[in-house]
Amino acid sequence: MAQSDEEDDYMNMVFEDAPKGPKYETSLQRAARRRKEGEAKARQKTKAEREEEAEAAREASLATALPETNKGFKMMAKFGFKQGDALGKSESGRKEPIRVNVKDDRGGIGLESEKKRKFREQFEEADRLAKRSKEEEGDYLEVLRQEQKEKMAGRDLNDAQRTAERLFDKEAEEKGTPEPSEKPLKDINVLWRTRARRRAEIKRDKQQRRELNDSIASRLPTLAPEDDDDDDDSKVAQGQDLAPFYTTLENDVEDEDPELEDFEALPVTERLHKVLTYLRDKYRYCLYCGHEFPDAEMEGCPGMTQEDHD
Fold first, then answer.
1. pTM attached to this predicted model
2. In the chain, which residue ranges form alpha helices assigned H by DSSP?
3. Rg value, the chain, Cα
4. Domain G-patch, which positions (predicted)?
5. Any domain includes 109
6. How far apart are CA 263 and CA 50, in angstroms?
């Protein structure tokens, strides 16, 4: 037999007349409650908790509209102000109160702005110094690269001058007109005249050192030839009968050479360019290929400079 829809569902029944808790708290409950409240009041709140409560109270106050029972609201209502309207005759004023920035330190008014200004100046100074240091570092690296480049160009210049001089001497021997060993410096091509002048200076220095060592022997008295006059004895005793050894001082290397001075005054890269051009035009020779080409087009050579051969 099916149950009727009107039958009660005993599983979901609610007894409204069920007994409830005591209407009044007992003495034990009251004592426990008072003990908890006393402990809560006696506990010292931390600074963070006090600041949090003050912030919450301030935000709640700012979020609460001015009640109509407020005396100030009543005065503004007489001039037509309504809740939610903006201030001013043209209603262009503020609708929300000005935010409050609580000052929680003991510094004077304006000190925070001064700190911000100093901090901003320090930041700008640090940024300026960092940029300057970066620029100086870049300049220093550029100077190092330039010095390295000039040093490499100096080595290439010396190699190019040696090669040009060798090819010139080789051509002169093939023609049967070799260059004299004591050729004046001004008659040597200015492109490699520096090498010839350096060799002449080294030769002169060696000769002077040799003459300086031999000069000690020249000061010692020696026997004069028997057929000399009697006056020679006094010359011998004084060491004045010997010929002087310092002949290199009379034939010193020519100091004045305006053409060479002008050439040496040029930057090393420009001097190198002149010598390389001479080698290519005169002998069809590339210093970096190390090869003398058969024709003027120098087919196969990538270029004149070291960068072209890299």
1. 0.47
2. 27-42, 47-63, 71-78, 111-175, 193-218, 231-238, 258-265, 268-283, 306-309
3. 55
4. 68-114
5. no
6. 86
